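Quick review question:
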């Protein structure tokens, strides 16, 4: 199409050009629909991944609390083991002191029995001498 001076104002497409444009438009619309579907699928997958990530984060937080409790218990067990070792050492020392006291008392008792036997012997001798003298 041209104006009075011969300048081209536009082109009137032929039916072949219109058909090609319609085919191109239909293909573009299908690409847009396919891309939209893919974007929706990606969005759904992203939401699913976010949900899984949130659940994993919560599980991890719970696990961290459990690990903290385990570490606390291990520290307490170590402290108790140290206390038990100290008590065992103290108990062993107390038993050794008691055994020494028993040994000392046994020795004193044996000495006292020996002295009593000597006194009894001397008493018998004094009685015999008294009879002889008197």
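Suggested answer, residue by residue:
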């Amino acid at each position: 199409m041209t104006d009075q001076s011969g300048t081209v104002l536009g082109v009137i497409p032929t039916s072949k050009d219109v058909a090609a444009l319609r085919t191109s438009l239909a293909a573009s619309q299908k690409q847009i629909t396919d891309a939209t579907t893919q974007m929706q699928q990606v969005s759904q997958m992203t939401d699913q991944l976010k949900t899984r990530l949130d659940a994993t984060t919560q599980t991890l937080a719970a696990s961290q609390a459990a690990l903290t409790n385990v570490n606390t218990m291990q520290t307490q067990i170590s402290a108790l083991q140290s206390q038990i070792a100290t008590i065992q050492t103290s108990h062993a020392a107390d038993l050794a002191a008691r055994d020494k006291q028993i040994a000392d008392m046994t020795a004193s008792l044996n000495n006292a029995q020996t002295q009593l036997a000597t006194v009894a012997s001397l008493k018998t001798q004094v009685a015999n001498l008294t009879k002889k003298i008197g």
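Why it works: The chain has one helix and no strands. The mean pLDDT is 92.
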